[in-house]
Amino acid sequence: LLTWVEGRPLHSVPSSAPLRRSIGATAAGLTRALQGFVHPAQDHELIWDIRHAGKLRPLLPSVADADLRAGCERALDRFDAAMGPALSRLPWQVVHADFNPHNLLTDPGATRITGILDFGDMVRTARICDLAVAASYQVDPADPLATLAEVIGGWHSVLPLLPEEEALILDLVALRMVTTIVLSNWRAARQPEQAGYFLRNLPAAGAGFAALAALDRAEALARLSTLIRKEAA
Q1: What is the spatial distance between Cα 16 and Cα 148, in angstroms, rounded to a whole number?
Q2: Helix, strand, or coil here: 115?
Q3: Do strands 92-95 and 123-126 pair parallel, antiparallel, or not at all (unpaired)?
Q4: Could you tell me which of 204, 187, 183, 207 has the C-alpha nearest to residue 195?
Q5: Are residues 7 and 22 in contact, defined by beta-carbon separation less than 8 angstroms?
Q6: CA 56 – CA 34 distance, rounded (Å)
Q7: 144, 101, 129, 217 alpha-carbon torsion, rounded to 10°
Q8: Of 222, 231, 122, nearest to 170 (Cα)?
Q9: Would you give the end-to-end CA distance of the chain in angstroms?
Q10: What's the rounded Cα separation, in Å, for the pair 159 and 28?
Q11: Which residues of 45-70 are buried (b: 16+ CB within 10 A; e: fewer)?
């Protein structure tokens, strides 16, 4: 016997503002529901967990594109200098940790999330990392802040961001993209017969990371804050 959750895979439907808001709200709802959940294995080390981003540095040579590799290195430098310590002061809990388009299902009209799959990456980490994962897959390089704000606004409407979380979210989204870029290239090089699977999210991550890296950080944070509140209203 087989059981399944009704819905269309998110990666197979067109993206839209209502869908992005639903992604954020659904992620926040699950995170809120998991508050207080504990498990003996909750502190296992997961390389995809953003709090371990510093451990990606030895894998950087697997990124063949020199400019992209340099951008990833700068992001890791910022993480080591400031973001890693800041994460330790934020709320922590067990989270889903893998809200990627292959793990979410939508309604027939592709306007809202109806199902969540694959809880295999659950881990205890800074809860804001779960939002960063979800948002990182929804950034449109043509308008990165607006599309990012739709996901974050959806989250904020359910689980309001702390000021300290909001200050880090832009960098955390970029770091999740770095994680995808580095680990996808590294795994594809190690198992070339599975390269298609490992690299399926790489084009979006590379384009999104480049779009965010091109922004003035201070200006982007200020505009993002305004957009988040507009979307959450």
Answers
A1: 12
A2: strand
A3: antiparallel
A4: 187
A5: no
A6: 28
A7: -10
A8: 222
A9: 44
A10: 6
A11: ebebbbbbbeebeebbebbeeeebbe
Report d(CA 33, CA 177) in Å as an integer: 26
pLDDT at 35 over 90: yes
Q: Give the H or E element holding residue 162.
A: none
Spatial neighbors of 188 by CB under 8 A, at least 6 apart, are: 194, 195, 198, 199
Handedness of CA 39, 26, 148, 141 (dihedral sign): positive
Is 80 exceeded by the pLDDT of residue 2? no
- The pTM for the full model equals 0.94
- Strand, helix or coil for residue 49: coil
- Give residue 27's pLDDT: 98
Q: What is the mean pLDDT of residues 42-64?
A: 95
- Position of tokens 């804001």? 128
The confidence score (pLDDT) of residue 233 equals 81
Secondary structure (3-state) at 105: strand
**Tokens matching residue 4:** 């399944």
* Amino acid occupying residue 105: L
* pLDDT reported for residue 69: 95
